[in-house]
Design a protein that fits this description.
Layout (H helix, E strand, L loop, with lengths): L3 E4 L4 E5 L4 E7 L2 H32 L2 H29 L5 H6 L1 E5 L7 H9 L1 H5 L5 H8 L7 H6 L1 E5 L7 E3 L29 H13 L5 H19 L7 H13 L2 H10 L1
Antiparallel strand pairs: 1-2, 2-3, 3-5, 3-6, 4-5
Helix pairs in contact: 1-2, 2-4, 8-9, 8-10, 9-10
Length: about 270
C-alpha cells in the first residue's frame, strides 16, 4: 500500500502511511505563507545590504588588485547566501526558515517525513519560476488551483507546507478502536546515546516512532526492518549519526531518551 493524502477539510490534511497510520496536519494557507515569505525577504535584504557594504569596503580599503579579487569572492558569497538561504535553514532547522518559524510553519514531505537536502534544493531552485512574472505570480496561481496550497516548487519536490500545532499531532489508525499494545522499552544498553539529540525530534516524528514501536510485533521481519529504516534514517541523518546502525534499536533509544529521564541516567552513568 502506498502513501495516500486525504483532504479532510479545507484546512486539514491527513497523511496515511503504509501501515494505515494517519497523521493529521493543518495546511498552511496563502496568508500565513505570504507573511512568512515577507519576513524571510526582509531578512534576505538585510543580509544583502550588509554583505554589499562589506564587499564595497573590501574593494576600497584593500587596493585595486587585492580589493577587486576579494570583492569578486564576496559577490559570489552574497549570491550563494541569497540562493542558499532557504535550503540551509530548511535542512538545519527541520523545514523551517526564520519566517516560517515565526509564523509556525514547516515544510514536510508529502508522506509526512522530514525533507532532505535534495527536496529543499529542488523546491527552492524552482522558486525562480514561481516568482515569474513578478511577486510569485505563477506560484500564487498554482496554489489557488491546488487543494494542498502547493506552489510549483512544492509539486516538483513532493513537499507540503503545514502549520506546527502547539499540541501534539494526533495519530490514529484506520481501526482506531482496536487495542494498541503498550510500549515497553527498557534498553539494557544504550548504543547510540552519545550522539542522539532528543531535542531535534519533532512531535510528528515522535508520534510515528511511538506508533511504530507499538505495532512492530505485528509486522513481518522484512517489513519491520524496512519501516524502521524509513522512519529512523531522516532522524539519524539530522543528528549526524552513523549510517550503519540498527534502526529498530535506534528508535527505541530515541523514544526512551525523548520521553523519560533515561538521558539523565545515561549521562550520570557515563560521568561516574
Amino acid at each position: 500500500m502506498g502513501i495516500t493524502i486525504v483532504n479532510l477539510m479545507n484546512e486539514q490534511l491527513s497523511v496515511e502511511t503504509p501501515e494505515q497510520i494517519n497523521i493529521n496536519y493543518q495546511k498552511a494557507g496563502i496568508g500565513s505563507r505570504f507573511y512568512a515569505a515577507l519576513l524571510d525577504t526582509l531578512l534576505l535584504l538585510l543580509i544583502m545590504l550588509v554583505g554589499t557594504y562589506v564587499n564595497i569596503r573590501f574593494i576600497t580599503e584593500l587596493g585595486d588588485v587585492l580589493g577587486k579579487w576579494l570583492g569578486a569572492v564576496g559577490g559570489i558569497v552574497i549570491f550563494a547566501m541569497f540562493w542558499g538561504y532557504y535550503m540551509v535553514f530548511e535542512i538545519t532547522t527541520n523545514g523551517q526558515s526564520p519566517g516560517k518559524l515565526a509564523l509556525g510553519l514547516r515544510v514536510i514531505k508529502e508522506g509526512g517525513y522530514p525533507i532532505s537536502f535534495a527536496d529543499s534544493a529542488i523546491r527552492n531552485l524552482v522558486r525562480l519560476v514561481d516568482f515569474l512574472p513578478f511577486c510569485y505570480g505563477a506560484g500564487l496561481l498554482v496554489m489557488l488551483i491546488n487543494k494542498n496550497w502547493q506552489r510549483l516548487g512544492d509539486l516538483a519536490a513532493g513537499t507540503l507546507v503545514v502549520k506546527t500545532s502547539r499540541k501534539s499531532r494526533k495519530l490514529t489508525g484506520v481501526n482506531s478502536k482496536v487495542f494498541v499494545p503498550s510500549i515497553n522499552i527498557s534498553p539494557q544498553e544504550f548504543l547510540y546515546a552519545d550522539w542522539i539529540k532528543p531535542e531535534l525530534v519533532t512531535e510528528s516524528e515522535l508520534g510515528m516512532i511511538r506508533e511504530y514501536l507499538s505495532r512492530r510485533l505485528t509486522l513481518s521481519t522484512i517489513r519491520r526492518i524496512d519501516l524502521a529504516r524509513t522512519i529512523g534514517y531522516p532522524v539519524a541523518e539530522k543528528m549526524g549519526g552513523d549510517r550503519d546502525i540498527r534502526y529498530d534499536k535506534f528508535l527505541e533509544e530515541v523514544y526512551a531518551l525523548k520521553t523519560s529521564e533515561s538521558l539523565k541516567t545515561v549521562q550520570e552513568k557515563n560521568g561516574s
